[in-house]
Amino acid sequence: MDSDDFDVYPIYHNGRVYNIITSMDLSFREVRGMIDVLVVLGAFPSGADPAVSGDLFTCTFEGVVFEVDVQGFDVVVYRREGA
């Protein structure tokens, strides 16, 4: 994937602003569900520092698997496919 193909979408969810960085079209339901799963997985520790290098996570929401890189409150979505 070419980094020029990625867009940044800020989203306010449960009191925080996240930046969803992706080249894909995602629904609000998918994005919010993905964030909720990432919270359960501990992807966003309190006091997350956006300068800290990211962690790769694979999460599933409603039968869709997402491969993401989390850097602070930035979520880079690399892959989206059916489970």
Explained architecture:
- The chain is α+β, with helices and mostly antiparallel strands and 83 residues long.
- The chain has one domain (3-82).
- It is 16% helix and 46% strand.
- The protein contains one helix and five strands; from the N terminus they run ββαβββ.
- The chain has one helix at residues 28-40; strands at 7-13, 16-22, 55-61, 64-71, 74-82.
- A five-stranded mixed beta sheet has the order 1-2-5-4-3, covered by helices on one side.
- The protein is globular, with a radius of gyration of 12 Å.
Descriptive terms for the model:
83 residues; alpha+beta; 16% helix; globular
The first-to-last residue Cα distance is 22 Å
**Number of separate structural domains:** 1
Biggest sheet statistics: 5 strands, mixed
Unreliable residue runs: none
What's the mean pLDDT score?
88
> From the helix content, strand content and strand pairing, which structural class follows?
alpha+beta
The SSE order reads EEHEEE
Number of helices: 1
Helix content: 10-25%
Task: Report the sheet-strand fraction.
Answer: over 45%
Please state the overall shape, judged from the principal axes of the Cα atoms: globular
Order of strands, widest sheet: 1-2-5-4-3
Taking all Cα atoms into account, the compactness measure Rg is: 12 Å
Q: What is the β-strand count?
A: 5
